[in-house]
Amino acid sequence: MTQSSNFPPLIGITTYGRDKENHFTLPAEYVDAVRRAGGIPVLIPAGETHIDALLERLDGLILSGGGDVDPELYAGNSHIEIYMIDPERDGTELALARQVAGDGTPTLCICRGIQVLNVALGGSLVEHLPDEVGETITHRNPPPGHAQISSYALHPLTVDGESRLADILGANEIEPASWHHQAVRRLADGLQVVARAEDGTIEAAELADHPWLVAVQWHPEITAADDPTQQRLFDAFVQAARVKQQTSR
């Protein structure tokens, strides 16, 4: 990096794919959480192909939430509940995930982000959770589509006390905001499960031997403004990006 050490770290955040009006969008909560943590958010629209040049300029990356990954990319099955398949976004985010997994860029994967990471590294996904784990735990409140805060489900989950994630959150039992109908099925090589819901659903993973890569199935950005536990995740991530910024000159 060439920027001064006095500059806040640059944090790339992937956007949603093109909508019907040909707009790229992203919920503002992602931007707000990064700014509270002291980072400068830089939005990365779907379709970007200059991955090496982009990551050379960034100090950290967030793979954001959104629609489903194309099941053909993990030898999965089609399902009526699968929505917002976007080849342009899949291509950009899978390339980003593979690159950061290997180059040590501090990375926070959120909801769709953990699924993208797992597929990028060779894992697979559960196409529709209620079909396989039932509905004892509500992972997503209807209806499908862009969720407002009132539609997010809250459910308890347990974090591995020996994990980096537990150390960051300062808690082993949390009840974060959740809005997803898919999750990790076959865990990719190198990833370690560090949190689960009561129905067994994988809720978080970390990449072994990576300086800082944490992937969560829930949406910490939604409650981070009012929940210090969730804001700590962004604070720790941006701090890791700051370390990279200062050591990569």
Describe this structure in words.
With 249 residues, the chain is an alpha/beta fold. The protein has a single domain (10-247), classed as Class I glutamine amidotransferase (GATase) domain (Rossmann fold, 3-Layer(aba) Sandwich), CATH 3.40.50.880. The chain is built from eight helices and 13 strands. The strands form three sheets. The chain has a nine-stranded mixed β-sheet with strand order 2-1-3-4-13-12-11-7-8, sandwiched between helices. Strands 5-10 form a two-stranded antiparallel ribbon. Strands 6-9 form a two-stranded antiparallel sheet. A hairpin with a 5-residue loop joins strand 12 and strand 13. Helix 3 (87-103) packs across helix 4. The longest helix has 20 residues, at 228-247. Residues 146-150 have low confidence and may be disordered.
The gyration radius over C-alpha positions equals: 17 Å
Beta-strand residue percentage? 15-25%
Question: What class, by secondary structure content?
Answer: alpha/beta
Q: Span from first to last CA?
A: 5 Å
Flag low-confidence runs. Answer: 146-150
Main beta-sheet strand count, sense and barrel state: 9 strands, mixed
Keywords:
globular, 8 helices, nine-stranded mixed beta sheet, single chain, 249 residues, two-stranded antiparallel sheet
Compact summary:
Helix content is 31%, strand content 19%. The chain is of the alpha/beta class and 249 residues long. Strand 11 and strand 12 form a beta hairpin.
Helices and strands in order, then pairings?
Layout: E1 10-14, H1 28-36, E2 40-44, H2 51-57, E3 60-63, H3 87-103, E4 107-110, H4 112-120, E5 125-126, H5 129-133, E6 153-154, E7 157-159, H6 164-169, E8 173-174, E9 177-178, E10 183-184, E11 191-197, E12 202-207, E13 213-216, H7 220-223, H8 228-247
Parallel strand pairs: 1-2, 1-3, 3-4, 4-13
Antiparallel strand pairs: 5-10, 6-9, 7-8, 7-11, 11-12, 12-13
Helix pairs in contact: 3-4
